[in-house]
Amino acid sequence: MSVEKILENWKKKQYQPVYWLEGEEDYYIDKVVQVAEHQILTESEASFNLSIFYGREANWADVINACMRYPMFSEKQVVLLKEAQQMKDLDKLENYIANPLASTILVVAHKEKKIDGRSKLAKLLKEKTVFVQTKKMYENQLPAWAEKLVQSKGYSIQQKACLLLVDHIGNDLSRIENEIDKLLINLGGRTTITEDDIERFIGVSKEFNVFELQDAIARKDLPKAIRIVQYFESNPKAGPIQMILPALYNYFSKVFMIFGARTNDEKLIASTIGTSPFFVKDYIQCSQRYGYEGVEKILLLLHQYNLRSIGINDGGTSDSALMKELLVKIMQ
Fold first, then answer.
1. Least CB-packed of 29, 128, 185, 225 within 10 Å?
2. Comparing C-alpha atoms, which of 16, 3, 2 is closest to residue 78?
3. What's this model's pTM, rounded to 2 decimal places?
4. Mean pLDDT over residues 43-51, rounded?
């Protein structure tokens, strides 16, 4: 069952005895735990019927005893086991999970890793609980996820603004949501987040960023590309080479994939290379400007300069000098 389905069911007062949430993506686990802690029970019900345990400190017997109690002045009680991956003898919960109390809602948050799939507990969880495994979202999925999140809050966001936001933050869903909430507070009466908003409230330049650098390289605009690198030199946090080179490699890898797509259908190409249809024309035009051999050369150069940036086959050239040298070789 998905997290969205769990929360939808909870709004309808539809509960199961045990929910087991595990995996690498904390965001969705935290969402479920937060709702379980604050919304299933009323404030007066929670004072008698909400028990919270933390794995490092919890004793398995105490958790089971809490689960076996009957609710007071309420139809349900909620037992939360947070940070369950740190709990000793976690497998001792097996007997309760096999025969849970219908009036108890046990929510287990097992972060960072998964239970060994070969274990008896893992098989029991899949048979007897609402079992959810979360995975880290791929970077190319982040813009669509952020855009959908903004829309769920009744707003919209420009495509470029969305890319600037997620590129600046990275794969941290909780932080993306926090920054979106901050942006929405500052919109005043407007309903659309723009590039200007990202620059003003998040601190990301709309003119000097990795996407503008990609665009300058794609258009073979060397003067503009050099200006952006010079800005990065003056503002190291805005564009460290360790962030720029992987981003460029990812971009030109997608451009390279166009040669194997064997279609002119922009929607199909966008799906194949994993980008928004809104930007696919830029990728196609870049592939046409450089050609197959040109894009292949760029990928090899990016690999070479990535090695140099970490000191391999390089005597200590500055990041800015490496980038300028790379840009000249790409566009010559």
1. 185
2. 16
3. 0.76
4. 94
| pLDDT on residue 276 | 77
Query: Which residue stretches of the chain are H helix?
Result: 3-11, 26-38, 43-49, 60-68, 94-98, 120-128, 142-152, 159-169, 173-185, 195-197, 210-218, 222-234, 241-261, 266-273, 280-309, 319-331
Q: What are phi and psi of 28, to 5 degrees?
A: -70, -35
Mean of pLDDT values over 247-267: 89
Consecutive H or E run containing 218: helix 210-218
Q: State the chain's mean pLDDT as an integer.
A: 92
CA separation for the pair 212, 223 (Å, rounded): 12
278 token code pair: 């809104």
List, in sequence order, every beta strand (DSSP E) within 4-76.
18-23, 50-54
E-only strand ranges, 136-181: 156-157
The DSSP bridge pattern shows strands 50-54 and 104-111 to be: unpaired
Cα–Cα distance, 316 to 299 (Å, whole number): 22
Inform me whether the pLDDT recorded for 83 exceeds 80.
Answer: yes
Task: Tell me what pLDDT residue 265 has.
Answer: 85
**Segment (H or E) for 267:** helix 266-273
At residue 169, the 3 state secondary structure works out as helix
Distances (CA, A) of 331 to 227, 231, 282, 292, 298: 15, 20, 17, 14, 9
DSSP state of 71: P
Residue 289 has pLDDT above 90, yes or no: yes
